Amino acid sequence: MRTTFGIPVLLFLTAVAGCVEPASPGETSDTTTRATTTSTATNSTTHATNTTTTMPNEPPKANLTHDLDNDTVAVNTTFNFTVDGDDQDGDNLTWDLDVDGDNESDYNGTDADFGEVSHNYTENGTFNATLTVSDAQDNATSSVLINVTASAGGAKFQDSVLLPCTTCPDVFIDSVEFELTPDLVGLPFLAESTQGDPDLIFTSEDCDGDEIELVADEGPETGTVPEGAACMIVWEFLFPDSEITVTIGTPPPDEEEP
Q1: Is position 36 within any domain?
Q2: How far apart are alpha carbons 14 and 116 in whole angstroms?
């Protein structure tokens, strides 16, 4: 009886043990697999939380102005540009000012240098002045047109022949006095007489003020109105009855017919 029952029992245990396959080397059980999956999901969630979003750069702003009337200035006359800019991001700014439209920087600085920039043009013409402001990533520009003439405002050429001053004191016998205004300083003049050889002086204040400059060359007198001149006194020494004419400014060239 012991031997008979031993055989079935042994077979039954073998069959039951065969239903559960042992894990092969390198494989894990179901419990181990579930733990690994849970750990991966946790790490993925942590990575998404630490993601950083980069905001786009806000470009700077540029503003160029000046202190001229009607965008017009006389040649060789100093005036002021005002350069200004702003940046919403608070970035450090640099700027370049091209005053004549040749795409080259004539003045430059940083945001600490915003303010007035003095300049004078030495040639007639119309110039496109451009301010460029940069925050190292983006640029902004602002432009103005400047008209440069031989006389401020350009209309002075219509009245360029000065009329004698009727209220000025007679400083010299047979002299003619011409009252000057500050906007004529630096402009070219021409003094002529019917006899061809006038002399002249410039004085400060009124025509009996201090002498600033004497011009006594042979023939018609030319030059530029000096700083501080308020009066021009002209005379013809040898021919006191000469007719004297003084012209301030250089008339522009005649416009071509269309």
Answers
A1: no
A2: 102
Over residues 86-100, mean pLDDT? 93
Confidence at 133, pLDDT banded by 50, 70, 90: very high
Six token digits for residue 193: 């007489």
pLDDT tens digit string along 118-129? Answer: 998 887 778 999
3-state secondary structure of 84: strand
Question: How far apart are the C-alpha atoms of 83 and 111, rounded to whole Å?
Answer: 9
For the stretch 164-188, pLDDT in tens is 887 787 777 778 888 888 878 888 8
How many CB atoms sit inside 10 A of residue 3's CB?
Answer: 6
Which residue range forms the structural domain that includes residue 135?
A: 61-149
| Same domain flag for 122 and 161 | no
Same structural domain, 143 and 176 = no
How many domains, the chain? Answer: 2
